[in-house]
Specification:
The structure is a homotrimer.
Chain A (H helix, E strand, L loop, with lengths): L9 E5 L7 H14 L3 E4 L4 H4 L9 H12 L3 E5 L7 H6 L26 H18 L5 E5 L11 H15 L2 H7 L33 H29 L5 E2 L1 E2 L8 H5 L6 E3 L8 H14 L5 E5 L18 H11 L2 E6 L26 H16 L12 E4 L2 H9 L9 H13 L5 E4 L10 E4 L9 H10 L3 E5 L21 H4 L1 E8 L6 E5 L9 E13 L3 E6 L8 E8 L2 E6 L1 E3 L1 H14 L12 E8 L2 E8 L5 E4 L5 E3 L5 E2 L2 E4 L4 E6 L1
Parallel strand pairs in A: 1-2, 1-9, 2-3, 3-4, 4-5, 6-7, 7-8, 8-9, 10-11, 10-12, 12-13, 13-19
Antiparallel strand pairs in A: 14-16, 15-16, 15-17, 16-20, 17-18, 18-19, 21-22, 22-27, 23-26, 24-25, 24-27
Chain lengths: 675, 675, 675
């Protein structure tokens, strides 16, 4: 359980009382109580208030808020305030200001603004964390420590350049090793001195968003940048940990956030927390995937939903309101995927600056008589009713999808064969095929233990890191089903091609040789012609984007290309490998094809969905001590009836038994306890 | 009257004889006479010629041109030449060069290139104005003083940064007041020293065109930038005024030009002048609106049409020729809306650099035998014929549309709720509904006296400045009809939200409370369902973009939303307030809806159109000493017949009486004197 | 013949053995032999390897590769390696780093990275060329010297700025002449000192890609930039030449590459070589045009096809494979248009950095058993079979199309009348009309001798340089047919308008006066209404983009505009001039119109096509010592039958006689020897 102090889902969110007067704070306390709020995240953006100069610290104002909240039954998630440095620090110590990718030095402003290799930033941020820990190490109100805020972005300053060289020395030892890893013989890039290495930005190797003359340099810089921020986090973490041995420490992540390798970060976090801000066009399946990724960061441990908006956002082009019920629905979707908290940004809406049109529990009207407040309040009382029943329960999955940040970076930086390839879209495509059937999935890293899974899917496994091929072979050899796709097995961890024939290190496992890779215009397509019926798959399916031209080396051909000069070449192969099978999908198939194939592979491996539900109704299951909890999430605007068959269940909110079917209202959620 | 020296509409335009040899100038004099030209704007871009170094001035060349023109009956509009600084000044005094929004220092080049807070610029520009005034203070040829040229753009240099801090000190007095106005408690932006404040550009608070992390900072910087340029203008103005007490001083404005608050500028101008360059897709109603805005800057005083092209422009993507008749038509459209001059850029076409494909009275062919010359010449002779009859006549309007630059800036900088909201488009939408019916409109500022109007429309009055709500209440209380729309009454002059419920300070007047604001995707719509017939309005109309979810507090509901979860909530309300009514339109309705509503409100208030005309035929009226002049402007390519009914009129160009109807040729104009 | 050492078409390409180990090199030698490869371009990107610091040179590694290749029967095209400077040079001598157009100084990285006016670059690049020449001046393996690589880009650094002023002094002599040429009286740009002149970049005169406030300045800077790089080339050339009197020296050009005036460059090259990389959407007619341009650079001399990809590229958005046969087809297309070599980039695919997904003769698989290797190998053996038969044969053309880089630059920089005008597209439009009928064409410069042609076409001859009008008059007077179009004869070589009436210096020849130029929106059109039938032209054709409004001054009107206010004005005129005719096409006509007109003009002048072929089948002819070689290139995917009529031919690959018709396979090529 996250904390024994509060044996229920924490409910609350970001609270910035420093923007308001005392009278408003008193109103807030009353409204929080009405809404069933029991946790407030304080001090996220208060660095400037906390520290007006190098030597002065004013933390006493925090005491007041922590205490008055605590007296009202509200715990504190205490941020360290280092997410945005003070103006005076930028003016007096410009090393704290980042240099943008185009080489321009920033001035004070905005939010994500501290260079992660700034000595000033590291010094003062750690000192702030240390002082906060010292001050509040025994305060009973503190439930969670929240370091900085939404780490992100990149810096290309001289300090980063120097630190990059040091990072490289530590990673490679010698310049020779660097030259080899980056293949600098190409284009005469050989480095004879560490100081000749410069940051790969728009002034040197990169000319656009996803571009580089030297993928190896850019890849390492991305790793370095992620590591640099992680070091900043770690320094604050250590400062707190050294004073509070049992502190629960986190920082709020952002789902599929490209610049940071969260698998690496999560190792340094006591609990994962994240901010869920789907856009207007984000499919619910993608939100589900993001939750599963966040859960996967720490091998299935429950996570904190640290932020979501109660109503609307402000930074989308068009910021629609969450429809009635949707805030509750999406909150429970998070819980169904492993969240043990439900928290908002924010509790009271700001009146000025760029987030004043971002929703809040307490709107600008300032009172309880709003739709948003009524909905958040109702949810608060539900969570009180649910108590600790769901806390610490787990999701059980037999299917794993392999996700890897390095692979994402390498694919995006690749020059050719196509700009159309989006790694996360491919991950989502395979995930969605399972999600639509309520098959639970774990998102795992290349370091994860795969032995507990029956089916492992690794879409576009372009980069194969050391040891991974052997692990996949072992998994398959032991009876697992392995699936991968076109543009896999191409490079090693340095983005250097494994010569001798694609898919390189995966060739033996897959029993194929890919000779060429054709890239199609978006308007062009090929087809997948099934040679036999496989499950529900038969006939012809559209494919495109990339088409591998492959030869089998032991694999069976289950489908062929239907057109072009490679008509008749294999597009879907299956390789018996030990006790298992390794499947290869040589082109980007349409959704029905992927769905049909994965359904077949699940059936082969006796992988059952949680429940069969009508379209648009998501079913999830969490389990604790043998007790299952079933979430029915109706993402349709209209009511839907879910057949429960012989399941013996009761509705957790009213404890009433439920029959063999149940109607879920439009945008509604029902949580059942399964006997 | 603008000037007694020339009791007719000035006709002429920019003339740059310094680009030509003497023989050409002599040809020009002859051609000007042929064309009926009587004013030439000189010295617009001659600073480099006038002043080859810090101490040397060569103004004697100007004498020659002023004199030879004057001897040919042509007066001078004398520019001060400070619109483009000399190269030597940029090389030797780089403080005169601007810094772009992305932080890059400019080099010499282009046109709008002087930093408004450059000590060098201020020193030498004022000295130039002073010397010109000294030299020509008694010259009879000078009709108008034209300071600089098309002030515009922004600068983000260190001098501007310093001057911004001074401007803030003057405006706010204390840093505490600044911190409060900008809500710097948000994102930890608290400033402890004035020198911590930096310019809000791409290096700090703004990342795109209409974006800011801190609306308050950006808004103030926009105001400061407008004020800085106004100070430059004012310094030259004072230099001239101190030497020539009766000088007529102006600078050429540019219609809806966002960076400069022309209402503030116009207070410092003796007469408004502006440059009218509609694009290929500019509706004629928008040009009409721009004229009305220019007239509104000085409460209805006639203005100078300082520039327009006789034929084509060069900076549009596609620069089509003005069709036969269109130059005359658009010239008279300007007059119908308040212009008392008709002037061109330019009189002779340049042979080199970026405006060589911009039209001129004398084309590259260099003679009179061109379509363009024939048309300009014909117009010149018409204007001579018209004499002073129209001069100083006024437009009488019972309808005012409120326009405010601060409101424009604030809406554009807003982060959320939608990028689709374009303030000027909304202004135009309401204007066009009246224009299409020939209802004359004044464009007024928030400082204007409203007592003379029957109907005041304030589309998207997002920002309500101090005193405005009371003024609108008084206007309505006295029997006026007030109309405003969605996203109004949200913030004060600092862009800080008025809490307690939207529309804030307008809530009492409108009798409503707006609880939420929904933003729709461009592809989405809602509908306005009329509850009763109002004038010609009945049934259903499309709406979208933003949808306020509102509750009445005294107002009547005249229409409701037709769909979505707020179906049945009010979308059109009317609040009886004193002797008048306050209307609220909660969403962006289609044109027919706006047209029908405004027609009804005009009829209620007995506001009559100038005349009923066929579609595409604009009718305008100017009045002088009880004498009305009627402009019939046919914007169609085909002829149209206008019914005059019982009006007793005569054609001002031939003094012939006109019957009960008259045919206006395609692209033709007829000006009638009404008995 | 290019070289007596190898009496056949050189076959090979770029080879970078420094990226590989020795074992791989030995495999390469074997594979090269299998593929019939006999030339390898070495040392293109080896500067860093060759020279690790200022004083140390390591060229001995090259000896090994040159020798081992030579022993395997493979000659060397020796690059000087100066296409990419070493990292240490950038770090220690930053003057070698360019400044981008936006004013940002580059760091080390990328490829085209040396400032052409860098003293460091000039010093070390020449020294490298000198040392290579010294070392290999007597080596029998060296066939060709390849200076640097794909010169290109621009620099805007302070050294370039200073060198630009010197270049201007040399060109103009006095500042007065510069001021006049640039028309600096416009916008007060007068320069009083050379040091006031700055580079025209985004900091000064240019704000986008094709934009400038001062066309004259921008035009001269473009010339200067081309000249600066040419000087770099020339310095290396001289270093080699001084040591090797009979060296064959080239650099690889890039077809229609805008920044460099290749006509000027070619004068300094012993043989033209170029890199042919058509994109996915490049029409085959455009590739043909590019080959003809490259051949035209040296008045019809055969050229080297220095680079093409054997299979796919990597820098296109979508990099499709060359379909089976296409590599061979496009290789022979090059030969048909004058290539005397067939060479690839590259011989073995890199494993890392941005070109690892660019095709190569030896793919990542590393062996001969690939489609790509089989196709390249087959072609290699064909070329061996063809021997020297085709070498040094010529293309004979009676039609010339005039192309001029200055004209291209000036049109693109023009502000107005339309952004739609693309000079090269217009060149291609006229070329394609001839290409489609297999009429052979020379692309000539404004300096070329026109006396050998019957038909000269100069689309959009906007800029008329000194002497050109007289030359065109003489050509026509002597019986030639001259064709030009709208927007011609506008400016002189300084981009200053020739006043008095368009088309300026061409007015006498064309017998017309263009009064105005209308620009249409892309959605708008006019029509060409034929007054009489001319060849196959009759009735009505669409036109648009630009429409000249013209009056005849001696010319006959053959077609008129069909609509708009200039309906009935001439759109196609013919002027009898001496013994010839000068035609003017006043608007951008549709392809059928251009095709019909050019067919008629060819027939008038008895200009015969090479052969009548089915659509998509290109026929080309090279001639040597009275012996004709006929190329039949089928660009269709399907086979096509070509009628040869009474031609007595034999297939050059099997020496078998061919009858009166022959089937060419889809994507196939047949080469016939004509008796």
């Amino acid at each position: 359980m996250i904390s024994n102090k509060l044996p229920k889902m924490f409910y609350g969110g970001d609270y910035n009382p420093e923007q308001w007067d005392h009278g408003t704070h008193l109103e807030d306390l009353d409204l929080f109580k009405q809404a069933g709020i029991d946790i407030a995240t304080l001090n996220v953006f208060s660095w400037a208030r906390n520290q007006p100069d190098e030597v002065t610290y004013h933390l006493e104002w925090l005491d007041g808020y922590i205490n008055s909240l605590y007296e009202s039954g509200i715990y504190t998630c205490l941020a360290t305030s280092t997410g945005a440095h003070p103006a005076w620090m930028a003016t007096r110590y410009p090393d704290i200001l980042r240099v943008e990718k185009d080489g321009r030095k920033r001035k004070f402003g905005g939010r994500h603004n501290s260079c992660p290799n700034s000595p000033t930033y590291r010094h003062y941020s750690v000192e702030m964390a240390r002082r906060l820990a010292e001050r509040y190490k025994e305060h009973p109100a503190i439930l969670v420590w929240h370091i900085s805020n939404e780490y992100g972005g990149e810096c290309y300053c001289d300090n980063c350049e120097k630190a990059f060289r040091v990072w490289l020395k530590q990673r490679y030892g010698t310049l020779d090793a660097v030259n080899k890893a980056w293949n600098t013989a190409f284009w005469g890039h050989t480095f004879y001195d560490w100081d000749e290495i410069v940051v790969p930005d728009h002034r040197s190797e990169e000319w656009g968003e996803n571009s580089s003359s030297f993928q190896g340099i850019s890849l390492d810089y991305t790793r370095f940048n992620s590591d640099s921020m992680l070091e900043c986090y770690q320094l604050e973490y250590d400062a707190i940990r050294s004073l509070i041995p049992d502190a629960l420490i986190t920082t709020n992540l952002m789902g599929f956030y490209k610049p940071l390798d969260y698998f690496k970060w999560a190792k340094q976090m006591d609990i994962v927390s994240w901010d869920n801000y789907p856009g207007l066009n984000t499919p619910v399946s993608f939100t589900a995937l993001a939750h599963d990724l966040m859960r996967g960061l720490k091998d299935g441990d429950p996570f904190m939903l640290m932020e979501q908006t109660p109503s609307q956002q402000n930074w989308q082009p068009y910021n629609s309101l969450k429809r009635p019920g949707v805030m509750r629905l999406w909150s429970y979707q998070a819980v169904a995927h492993g969240a043990d908290t439900v928290m908002f940004f924010q509790l009271r809406r700001s009146i000025g600056a760029c987030e004043k049109f971002h929703g809040a529990v307490i709107e600008h009207a300032g009172h309880a008589n709003t739709r948003v407040f009524r909905e958040t309040s109702a949810l608060g009382h539900e969570l009180q009713k649910l108590g600790d029943q769901l806390l610490d329960s787990r999701i059980e999955a037999s299917v794993a999808i392999l996700f890897d940040w390095d692979n994402w970076w390498a694919i995006d930086k690749s020059s050719g064969p196509t700009v159309a390839l989006q790694y996360v879209e491919q991950i989502h495509k395979y995930y969605k095929a399972l999600y639509n059937r309520n098959v639970q999935v774990d998102i795992v890293s290349v370091d994860s233990d795969l032995s507990g899974y029956k089916l492992v899917i690794a879409p576009v496994l372009y980069m194969v890191k050391p040891g991974l091929a052997a692990k996949l072979e072992q998994f398959t050899d032991n009876g697992g089903t392995f699936v991968t796709t076109f543009f896999s097995g191409i490079v090693n961890e340095h983005d250097l091609v494994t010569t001798g024939g694609y898919p390189g290190e995966l060739r033996k496992l897959l029993g194929i040789w890919v000779e060429e890779i054709d890239a199609l215009l978006p308007s062009m397509h090929n087809s997948i012609e099934m040679k036999e019926t496989i499950g529900e798959l038969s006939g012809s399916y559209q494919c495109g984007m990339l088409c591998d031209l492959l030869h089998t080396e032991g694999a069976d051909v289950l489908a062929e290309y239907g057109t072009d000069f490679y008509k008749g070449m294999p597009v879907l192969t299956r390789h018996a490998f030990g006790q298992g099978e390794a499947w290869y999908i040589a082109s980007d198939g349409e959704e029905d094809f992927v769905a049909g194939l994965l359904k077949h592979l699940c059936q082969q491996q006796n992988i059952e969905p949680v429940l069969d539900t009508p379209a648009g109704v998501e079913a999830g299951r969490r389990v604790k001590n043998g007790q299952a909890f079933l979430f029915l999430l109706n993402h349709n605007a209209e009511a839907a009836t879910v057949e429960l068959g012989s399941l013996q269940t009761s509705n957790m909110l009213d404890n009433q038994p439920v029959g063999s079917s149940i109607e879920v209202p439009g945008n509604g959620t029902i949580i059942l306890s399964v006997k």
